[in-house]
Write a structure and sequence with these properties.
CATH class: Alpha Beta
Shape: globular
CATH superfamily: Aldolase class I
Distance between the termini: 56 Å
Strand content: 15-25%
CATH architecture: Alpha-Beta Barrel
Helix content: 25-40%
Number of helices: 9
CATH topology: TIM Barrel
Number of strands: 8
Strand order of the largest sheet: 3-1-2-4-5-6-7-8
Largest sheet: 8 strands, mixed
Radius of gyration: 18 Å
Order of helices and strands: EEEHHEHEHEHHEHEHH
């Protein structure tokens, strides 16, 4: 039987921010979005990265199981967009579940919910979903896609009782408009199974990757977000 192969960008073995506890973070290669604030521009190419089998990745992960156990941690698959390689992630999660290891996916949710995706969702304990911008017009300009599938994805997760962490990148003057933040607040409040909201201040630390690829960094004239920006957004979302 032919081995299922995934394209992997990189690993982080002792991650502490992409889900609860200590986590093994698997960054998948390939993304269909074109986020102007992307700090991993080199993950976009679906033909890039390094090829690994499911067993090779599982064997790397299982070495850290004791760390997961004592910290209530596990594995988070990120990207790129991990759902573009749903077959690979599904087979990996089956092995992780058999080994008693908790699973999470960090995704944009901007895909169709196919039977394969539904099967993968069932094997996933936690979803970290990046709401690019609640304003659809701004979202289209910022990432190249409408936010409609992403919001429907969150609603679907909620309908089946999946735990959700929402992530919002705060890009000054773009994703932090007051009227949009109130809409975001109302949407978040309508979703029962959101247990955490992560506010991520925009930074340009990945700018050099765009330059290395010979591309113009699209947010060149946008300042990075600071603590005051985060506090302002937090106050509105909690109002």
């Amino acid at each position: 039987m032919e081995k299922l192969i995934g394209r992997i960008h990189s690993f982080e073995t002792l991650g502490a921010v992409d889900g609860p506890g200590i986590r093994f973070i698997l960054f998948m290669q390939g993304c269909s979005l074109r986020c102007k604030f992307c700090h991993n521009r080199d993950t976009w190419d679906c033909k890039g990265g390094t090829e690994y089998s499911v067993d090779e990745i599982f064997n790397k992960i299982v070495r850290y199981k004791n760390y997961f156990t004592v910290s209530n941690g596990g594995v988070t698959v990120s990207g790129g967009e991990p759902l573009l390689q749903a077959d690979f992630v599904l087979e990996l999660f089956k092995k992780l579940k058999d080994a008693g290891i908790s699973t999470a996916i960090d995704t944009s949710g901007m895909l169709d919910i196919t039977p394969k995706i539904e099967e993968l969702i069932d094997l996933t304990d936690l979803f970290l979903v990046d709401i690019k911008c609640i304003n659809d017009e701004i979202c289209r300009d910022l990432v190249g896609r409408s936010n409609k599938k992403e919001l429907e994805f969150i609603k679907y997760l909620d309908s089946i009782g999946k735990e959700i962490w929402i992530r919002q990148v705060i890009v000054p003057g773009i994703t932090d408009k007051e009227e949009d933040l109130y809409k975001l607040r109302d949407f978040i409040n309508s979703i029962e199974h959101i247990t955490k909201v992560d506010l991520l201040p925009y930074h340009d630390l990945g700018k050099y990757k765009w330059i290395e690829l010979g591309e113009v960094y699209p947010l060149e004239n946008i300042r990075t977000a600071n603590n005051d920006d985060v506090d302002r957004v937090k106050k509105i979302l909690e109002s």
